[in-house]
């Protein structure tokens, strides 16, 4: 891992994924050491269910607190947050969450682009954007916004993605800081 790509001042890691990304997330979370000074936010394309087991599934894989985001909740380090199904997830300047039910973006709500762009606006250079497996290009433009704001951009190696279209599109359209398999992403986050 390149030393200049490791950043010591990170407040937020935002992970976006679609089809096949759950497998990658389940490889990243067990790598994370407890006591980190940053929060992790996961935006995954999923269908709305009354009782989603996602938080429980992820909780079994990490020592971090895992929860679905609630409106106006303050972002707390050492917590894994999951974007609720059917809402765009935004960040407010006071580092709280905002949920929005406006139109779908890239056929998705939550949209990875919307969350990445909001994270770039609020957190600037102290955000890490991570784009995983998926079947559309949602997240690529948002990842570019994170890069433009001085944040770190990581793309899952398409060769290791269950569905390679999303990370391959990111590689085609922008130059990420790092291209890593899922386990490598977890190791990178621990190096912060």
TrEMBL record:
Taxonomic superkingdom: Bacteria
Keywords: Chemotaxis, Hydrolase
Annotated GO MF terms: phosphorelay response regulator activity; protein-glutamate methylesterase activity
Record flagged with keyword Membrane: no
TM stretches of this protein: none
Catalytic reactions of this protein: [protein]-L-glutamate 5-O-methyl ester + H2O = L-glutamyl-[protein] + methanol + H(+)
EC number: 3.1.1.61
GO-annotated cellular components: cytoplasm
Active-site residues, record numbering mapped to chain: 18, 45, 138
Pfam families in alphabetical order: CheB_methylest (PF01339)
Record GO biological process: chemotaxis
Domain CheB-type methylesterase residues, every copy: 6-192
Name of the protein described by the UniProt record: protein-glutamate methylesterase
Natural source organism: Sediminibacterium ginsengisoli
Catalytic class of the enzyme: hydrolase
CDD domains reported for this sequence: CheB
């Amino acid at each position: 891992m390149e030393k200049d790509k490791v950043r010591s001042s990170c407040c937020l890691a935002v992970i976006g994924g679609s089809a096949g990304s759950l497998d990658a997330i389940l490889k990243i979370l067990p790598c994370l050491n407890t006591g980190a000074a940053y929060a992790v936010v996961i935006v995954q394309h999923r269908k709305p269910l009354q009782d989603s087991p996602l938080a429980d599934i992820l909780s079994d894989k990490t020592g971090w607190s895992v929860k679905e985001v609630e409106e106006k909740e303050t972002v707390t380090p050492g917590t894994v947050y999951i974007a609720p199904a059917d809402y765009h997830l935004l960040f407010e300047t006071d580092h709280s969450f905002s949920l929005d039910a406006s139109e779908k973006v890239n056929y998705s709500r939550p949209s990875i682009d919307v969350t990445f762009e909001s994270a770039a606006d609020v957190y600037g250079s102290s955000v890490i954007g991570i784009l995983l497996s998926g079947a559309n290009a949602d997240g690529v433009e948002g990842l570019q916004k994170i890069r433009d704001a001085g944040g770190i951009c990581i793309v899952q190696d398409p060769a290791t993605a269950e569905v390679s279209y999303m990370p391959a599109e990111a590689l085609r359209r922008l130059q990420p800081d790092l291209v890593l398999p899922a386990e490598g992403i977890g190791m990178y986050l621990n190096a912060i």
